[in-house]
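Hi U.,

Before I forget, here's the chain from the pilot set. I'm dumping it here mostly so it's searchable later in email.
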Amino acid sequence: MNGEEYAGLGDWTLDVLGTGEVRAVVSAPAAVLSRAGDTVDPTAEETVRLAADLVATMRVSPGCVGLAAPQIGVGSQVFAVDVTGHPKAGTVHGTFVLCNATVVEASRWKAGREGCMSVPDLTGDVKRAGRVVVEGALPGTGKVVRLVTDAFEARALQHEIDHCAGLLFLDRVAGAHAVYQRKVYL
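Structure:
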């Protein structure tokens, strides 16, 4: 692999998306959450608008580090991630959106607690790769990129890619013993 393949986001910025609208987040058992999303044209106007809406919705949702199109009722393979400032973050790429993303390498598997805006009352222990290489297209430009990341950002990417495939974190837990009521902090 040469350095060009791991160029990260390059010169892509959120400016290409414009201003998005805050959308309602759907909760399980909504059917859209259990169906694989359609691949998208990352340069299409509706994809760019969807990407902007995902970022806008993620930003107004406290504690949200990622949001996928199915979570706002759209059966498409598009998601936003931003783990900036999270205490478990290692590598951080800032706020970004990927279309049609796939994990092309995964290693350093480890269980960790996950929650989800679409499953608001539960958390669960999920085994995920602690280091991943993810390939996807950037909305607006359509440029295909490879992101190499680790720690919490790797977990967030895998969680959002699962949403695009019609999977919730509950589909990945080892069993009922690994599911917990979400704690509410005052």
